[in-house]
Specification:
Layout lengths: L9 H16 L4 H8 L3 H10 L20 E4 L5 E5 L1 H11 L1
Amino acid sequence: MTRTRRTWTPDEKRRIAIDVRERLAAGERWAAIARELRIHPNTLRAWLESLPSQTIEPVQIRDDQPNATTVTLTTPDGFVFGALDLDSATRLWERLR
């Protein structure tokens, strides 16, 4: 059985990569996104890396746990650093910038 290879235009790749970036920032996992889109995670990563880098990333501050003692940071590439105290989160933020 022969499978037809799917192709995307550069604009489709850009739109998918932007969607993936937003979903990763919202806490979704690479594997889940790739499975849903039926695109290999490495392909998605390559498309994401081809986007122009942003020097300033939007930050969303949520106050849904006002007594929380930890902080979670999510990089633009979708890496999540969770359960950090404020001091550790600040140091990590400075190193990643």
